[in-house]
Write a structure and sequence with these properties.
The complex is a heterodimer. In chain A, 0% of the residues lie in helices and 46% in strands. Chain A contains no helices and nine strands. In chain B, strands 2, 4, 5, 6, 9, 10 and 11 form a seven-stranded mixed sheet that branches. In chain B, strands 1-3-8-7 form a four-stranded antiparallel sheet, with no helix packed on it. The chains are: A mainly beta, B mainly beta.
């Protein structure tokens, strides 16, 4: 399993962009980079994933470094409902997701 | 949107009793997982299940734990003789095939062993 490093916590203000970084320097060439989040008292929830190119969906954008050793999850306009723990997880094939400590995101009104 | 459902949402049991946690994964998914999360701690992998057998299990998943997919739709986790330290949230998840597929998690069962 590839090792990931994320800041323990981050704070932002409502309606401002948030950039959540993740280092995954031991990622293999075939691992996808997945991001999940866990809102308070809920199960983990898929956010976005990518392989090499940057990706956008209705929830967020994912910027992947050219060498794939790091990625950044971008929430374009954070809301209070985005307060959660965010996890980046390299994932290949049928592998299980391995959750680290993640980044606890606090959104200030 | 497809969803994974888990029942019950909360279960209280006496130490030493058997419990069965139930999950209905997404119907066309191939991989099924159980995770647990002790209060205030990270989400921990327990077991993965593919093609009607366990494909991987963690050190936590000892002889007291078992999983079953009895009827092609339900996916169950059984704890034979519960201990106080089994108190946790238990999450079921399912995925399609390949690293390009997202995992869907249920809302969890809160197990309290007294």
């Amino acid at each position: 399993d590839a090792k990931t490093t994320q800041p323990n916590s981050m704070e932002s203000n409502e309606e401002e962009p948030v950039h959540l970084p993740c280092n995954h320097s031991t990622i293999s060439g075939t691992d996808y980079i997945h991001w999940y989040r866990q809102l308070p008292s809920q199960g983990p929830e898929y956010v976005i994933h990518g392989l090499t190119s940057n990706v956008n969906n209705r929830m967020a954008s994912l910027a992947i470094a050219e060498d794939r050793k790091s990625s950044t999850l971008i929430l374009h306009r954070a809301t209070l409902r985005d307060a959660a723990v965010y996890y980046c997880i390299p994932l290949e094939g049928a592998q299980k997701l391995v959750f680290g400590q993640g980044t606890r995101l606090t959104i200030n009104p | 949107e497809p969803e994974v459902t888990q029942t019950p949402s909360h279960q209280v049991t006496q130490m030493g009793q058997e419990v069965i946690l139930r999950c209905v994964p997404i119907s066309n998914h191939l991989y099924f997982y159980w995770y647990r999360q002790i209060l205030g701690q990270k989400v921990e992998f327990l077991v993965s299940f593919y093609n009607n057998e366990i494909s991987e299990k963690s050190e936590i998943f000892d002889d007291q734990f078992s999983v079953e997919r009895p009827d092609g739709s339900n996916f169950t986790l059984k704890i034979r003789s519960t201990k106080l330290e089994d108190s946790a949230m238990y999450f079921c998840a399912s995925r399609g095939q390949g690293g390009n597929t997202e995992a869907f998690f249920g809302q969890g069962t809160r197990l309290t062993v007294v």
